[in-house]
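Homework help board

Subject: predicted structure for assignment chain

Our instructor gave us this sequence and asked us to write out the predicted structure in token form, then describe one feature. I got the tokens but I'm not sure how to describe them. Can anyone check?
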Amino acid sequence: MSFGQKAVKNAAIGVAIADDPASLTTFLQPGCAAAIWRRQTAPNFRQWLNNLDPESLPNGRVVLPVNTVPDAIQQLCDMSGLEEGAERDWFENDIDYLAKTFSGLMQAKYLRLRLQAVTTNACRKFHIDAITARLVCTYLGTGTQYGISMDGDDPKRVFTVPTGAPILLRGTLWPAEPKSGLLHRSPPIEGTGETRLVLVLDPVFDPDVEE
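My token output:
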């Protein structure tokens, strides 16, 4: 499957736009609060996801070594009853690629991986996560929303990450001063009938202290 390009217009200050995964290294630079890999999944993959029964979407949360991600994702897809095929293969390979890319960037040998089908307003309030950094990729449904606020109120201007485009976000444990004021949330979808399929990756530097 191939990727097309989709513009991320008027991104907030402090948000880097990468046209390829190698350019995500800008996330490590001072003053960069987030980075988006500007990409779009292929139409046949999107159609495949849209046609799936929401009840069959894989769900799971696990802390694991990066090199075991392929087996873990395969097990989650098996447990959900996803049929084998080119689209599922691409999906599993993409999660593995994002995991390796993000862990390499963060120099973390372990990750906390969460794959979740969302139909509620979970995490609908704008916030900053109490972590070092996080990768979020919405494969199905509306992408993560973000904006700048320096006074604790909701951002006056809200941006939405394109579906299929990973975003890297700094958390409160990232040693950066001054604070960027970049907040994010899951889009409120409860009652709309929309289902989101979201991948979340967090670096884990000491797996012994993880639950």
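Reply (TA_rk): Your tokens look well-formed. For the description, you could write something like this. The helical segments are 43-51, 69-80, 86-106. That's the kind of observation they're looking for.
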